[in-house]
Every structure is written in structure tokens, then in C-alpha cells.
């Protein structure tokens, strides 16, 4: 049941960490990616405008025009293919970095939770030991309040020691 319903504190810190990572990416990562994509788009737009100008000149010179038109279309296709490949690569790299950072943060969070769990268990054990010693002390004081009970306890303990040594 605990795996299906996360602890609200854990959920809160996961959202906070995700928000921090997203803010860092939004502040420093995405502007660089967007700028490079926009520069690439401007380069493509400029290349497309150059191709259109070449097409107008090709209409005047028909013999050379067909050859230049074919070259411009090939260049355009290459540029578009290259731009699409570059865009896809940049997006994939950004996603991979985000996944890696998310995994790293999750690992750190798991380690922190494990450490806190172990610390809590140690603290509980220490408290149980202190309580056990206190309870045992009170029980022994009550049972050994008279001399007869003390002598009976000592005799019984001696008998047990003798029996265990003989075995």
C-alpha cells in the first residue's frame, strides 16, 4: 500500500526538486537551444531566399537555369534534412540530460531517505534499549525489595550458571 500512495512530504520534495531542475533548464538550457534553432531557421530562411532569387535568375537563362534549379533544390533538401536532424539531435540531447539529472536526483533522494530511515531505526532501538533497562531496573527493585527475594534470586542464578557450565 505504501508503494501506491507516496508520502506527502516525499511528493512535496520531489515536486520542489523537479521545479528547481525545470527552472534551471528553463533559465539556462532552453534559451540556448531555442537560440541555436532560431539561428538555424534564419540560416535556412536565408538559404531559401537565396534559392528563390536563383530561381528568378534561372528563368532568364533557361539552359543554366535548369542546372542551377536542380542544385538549389538539392541544397534546400540537404539544409532542411540537416536542420531537422540537428533539431532532433538537440531535443534528444536535452531530454537525455533532463532524464540523467532526474535519475541522479532520484538516486540522491533514495540515498537520503535510506540514511534517514537507518537513523530513525537506530534512534528507536536506542530508545527501546533505554526503556528496557529502565523497566528491568524497576522490576528488579520491586522484586528484590526484601532480603528473602534477593537470596532466592541469587540461588536461582547460581544454579543456572552451574547447569550451563556442566553442559
Short summary:
The chain contains three helices and no strands.
How would you explain this protein's 3D organization?
- Helices cover 93% and strands 0% of the residues.
- It contains three helices and no strands.
- The two termini are 49 Å apart.
- It is rod-shaped and about 130 Å long.
- With 167 residues, it is an all-alpha fold.
Please render the helix and strand layout as text.
Elements: H1 8-60, H2 62-143, H3 147-166
Defining traits:
single chain; 167 residues; mainly alpha; 3 helices; rod-shaped
Which structural category fits the helices and strands?
A: mainly alpha
Low-confidence runs (pLDDT<50, min 5 residues)?
none
Distance from first to last alpha carbon = 49 Å
Strand content: under 5%
- Outline: rod-shaped
Total number of helices? 3
Task: Tell me how many strands there are.
Answer: 0
> Biggest sheet, in brief?
none
Work out the radius of gyration: 39 Å
Estimated helix fraction: over 70%
Provide mean pLDDT, rounded. Answer: 86
Query: What is the N-to-C order of secondary-structure elements (H for helix, E for strand)?
Result: HHH
Amino acid at each position: 500500500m505504501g508503494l501506491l500512495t507516496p508520502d506527502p512530504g516525499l511528493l512535496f520534495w520531489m515536486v520542489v526538486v523537479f521545479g528547481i531542475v525545470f527552472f534551471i533548464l528553463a533559465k539556462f538550457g532552453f534559451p540556448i537551444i531555442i537560440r541555436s534553432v532560431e539561428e538555424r531557421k534564419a540560416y535556412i530562411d536565408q538559404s531559401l531566399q537565396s534559392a528563390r532569387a536563383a530561381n528568378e535568375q534561372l528563368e532568364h537563362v533557361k539552359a543554366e537555369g535548369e542546372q542551377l534549379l536542380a542544385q538549389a533544390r538539392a541544397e534546400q533538401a540537404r539544409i532542411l534534412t540537416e536542420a531537422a536532424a540537428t533539431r532532433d539531435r538537440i531535443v534528444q540531447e536535452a531530454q537525455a540530460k533532463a532524464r540523467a539529472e532526474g535519475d541522479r536526483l532520484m538516486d540522491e533522494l533514495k540515498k537520503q531517505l535510506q540514511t534517514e530511515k537507518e537513523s530513525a531505526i537506530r534512534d528507536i532501538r536506542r530508545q527501546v534499549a533505554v526503556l528496557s533497562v529502565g523497566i528491568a531496573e524497576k522490576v528488579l527493585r520491586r522484586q528484590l525489595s526484601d532480603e528473602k527475594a534477593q537470596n532466592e534470586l541469587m540461588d536461582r542464578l547460581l544454579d543456572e550458571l552451574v547447569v550451563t557450565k556442566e553442559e
